[in-house]
Design brief:
With about 325 residues, the protein is mostly beta strands. It has a 12-stranded antiparallel β-barrel. A two-stranded antiparallel ribbon has the order 1-2. The longest helix is centred in the N-terminal third of the chain and has 10 residues.
Length: about 325
Amino acid sequence: MRTATVIFAVFTALVVPTRSPGQELPPPRLAPTPAPPPIPATDPWLLALAQSFILPTPPVADDEGLTVRGSSVGYIDPAAPGNQVILRSDFGYDFRFPSRAEFFYAKARPGGPGLPFPEQSVDYQNLSLYAETLLGPRASVFVEGGVRFLNPVVNANAAGYGDMNVGFKYAFLANECSLATFQFRTYVPSGDPHRGLGTSNVSLEPGLLGFTRLTDRLGLAGELRYWVPVGGTDFAGSVFRYGLGFRYDLWEAGQVRVIPVAEVVGWTVLDGRQPIFPPTGVAASESAAGTSIVNVKIGGRVDLTDRAGIYVGYGRAITGERWYTDVLRLDFRWLY
């Protein structure tokens, strides 16, 4: 923060008396320096208001953009490796074609290991725990798992452990305002596919994550991820995920910080199949290749301390094709 510098000019008066002929001139006397006027007391709230609207914003610390706390948005994975634990809940509504590319759960029976009957729409709630630990300044490993509550239309409701995933991050490019990271996830089929709780196959997901600080307050996050199933049925297919997200450090007081977040996240299905429901009532399938889905997600982060923070966000599909129509995310994060 640039501070205004006030320079006081001190004028010195020299008193020189007249002298008589032959009289020696006495040494000059310096007049006493006048005391500066008292500075009026300023209300701290008025001072904070003046600093917010008049004075420029203080620059962020050099390493702030390289930390999880300083670079997180909501749905896009943070590029910064870190020591953190996240308790997260996702609530999805009107999920169409959940077996498309076997991205959410497995193909229904009798052709697959999934639910007894194909579903045109389901609601779900995922409760998960994410834990990440640093291996060094630029590398970390993580594990994520939890439970799923499934509310189908045709099949019975189900609840139980869902698929888990493990992976690592490596920040291959880092400076005072930008970060680029390689991430690799492996999804493990720990959920019961017969009840719609998992995909029944291993999936691999390499990805690139990035973050850059555009101004002292504004940051941009991005991701490119490629989800590839290993095995699966004829429905299984690769999915390309991409996203951009903005965060703005709106207000800060001590360790508390309020950050609005806006993101656009998209998926393109590259191959695989999805069910269709013709008027005859006999379920069939069609290619899912080329299906593109885009969601807009709006939310906000509140950093309660330098370690604890919460996120609340809402997402909605803006394309005709979609996974879910609406999604709500709540999470609590602890940095250690």
